[in-house]
Amino acid sequence: MIAQNLISEVVPSLSLTDSGQKALNWMEVFRISHLAVVDDKKLVGLMSDKIIYDLNIIDKPMGDYVGQMLSPHVRSNQHIYEVFSIITMLKLSALPVLNLYHEYMGMITVFDLAQNFADLVAVKEPGGIIALELNSIDYSLTQIAQIVEGNDAKILSFYIHEEKDSNLMTVTLKINVVDLSSIIQTFVRYDYNIKEVYMDESIVQNLYDDRYDQLMKFMNT
Q: Which of 13-27, 71-85, 153-167 has the lowest mean pLDDT?
């Protein structure tokens, strides 16, 4: 998924003659704090509500404050991960998109980005979640995928979090089945540390009951 597919269909741009008050009105309507200032398809800069208030330019035109505007933007062919990184790093509510000819195309808002990112990582798809904790040197996506697929399931999405100043990492898997019992048991057989599991509570309880019954049978033999 690339930037041009994330552009909002409703957020407008400002012209050089638009006032600070008009900018604030639009920001309130669209619940963002940044708007692009555009002149003849050229991105002049990014205006923020903070700049408007700090410089007290409520009644002044945008064109008088070009030097104070922000300059971040992305190209139309940049990946959603790059867009996400820039918006997060610069703490923006919206980000301009330019085509390969440096022409302004539109804005990506945080809301639209979140919606599309949720689709990308299969947030809305039914299924369960398993978080594995392991040493970085032991990480093998191939083996993890084989364990999941060996239980007639598929990984819908996954992400990795590496602990700071540690060799440990957490691999979080979104799997396309609600009952993760057999997958969990297989991971345990392969000596994986199950850090967290998210699935239907009744299934989790049945899993614990089954383990308890097996333990009792073992102790009584």
A: 153-167
pLDDT at 125 over 90: no
C-alpha gyration radius of the chain: 25
Strand duo 168-175 + 128-135: pairing: antiparallel
Q: Kindly state the tokens that stand for 177.
A: 């089945």
Task: Spell out the domains of the chain, with CATH numbers in brackets.
Answer: 3-118 (3.10.580.10), 128-219 (3.30.2130.10)
Residues 2 and 77: beta-carbon distance below 8 Å: yes
DSSP 95-130: EEEE-TTS-EEEEEEHHHHHHHHHHHTTTTS--EEE
Here the tokens at position 44 are 């002049």
Burial of 81 (0-12, 13-18, 19+ CB in 10 A): exposed
